[in-house]
Amino acid sequence: MSRDAKTMSFGIASDPVGTGTDSTESSPWVSEGDGNAQSDNLNVTLFDPCPEPERFQVRSYAKRLETFTTMKWKASLCKSKTCNPEKMAEIGWFCTGTDSAKCYACFKDLEGWVAKDNPKKEHEDHCPNCPLVVLGIDPRAELTIRQQLQLNTKIEFYRLRLIRTREWEKVQEKEEAQKKVLVEMQNKLKKELEYEYGPDL
Predict the structure, then answer these.
(1) Cβ contact 50:107 at 8 Å
(2) Can you give the CATH number for the domain in which 88 is found?
(3) Domain encompassing residue 103
(4) Number of domains in the chain
(5) What single-letter DSSP state applies at residue 146?
(6) What is the DSSP secondary-structure string of 170-188?
C-alpha cells in the first residue's frame, strides 16, 4: 500500500485542499474568483510542489513515462500488471524515486508502491479533490480545447492553494516556536526573581 511521501507531508492532511481541517480553516485561501491569486506575498519558490519546467513537462504522457527510467522505478514494479511505468503514466503519475510517484495534476506524492497497487484507486483514495478526479477526466483521453483549459485552470488554482496552505502552516510553526521561546524566557526570569527576592514576590 502506498502512502504519502515524507518529502511532501509538511505536516498536512493527505488532501490539503478543501478538507476543512483546523490547520487550514483560517489560512488565506486562493479562490478561483480571486483576482489576487498571483499575490507577491505568495512564496512560490519555497513551497511550490512542482516547480517549472517540470510542472509543464510532466503533463505529457511521454515525459511522465520517461521519468520511470531516469528515476529508476523498481524492477518488481516495472514487471507489475497494475503499476508498471506505462500504467502509472497513463493515470497521471510520474516517478520521483524507486518506489515513489507524484500526480501531475494534484502533486500528491506517494511512496512505498508495491506490485499489487492500483494507480487509479490509490489516486482516488489519497486525493479525491484532485482536478482529474473532480472533473472526471481520464488522462489517457484526448481532451477538447475547452476541457484542457478547464483542467489547466483547476490545476493552477489547486497548486496556488496548496502553496498558500504550506506557507500558512510555516507561519504557524514559526509562531509556535516563538511562543515556546517566550515561555522559556518567562520561566527563567521567574526563577531568577525568586532566587533574588524569594518565592513570595
Answers:
(1) yes
(2) 1.10.1170.10
(3) 53-194
(4) 1
(5) H
(6) HHHHHHHHHHHHHHHHHHH
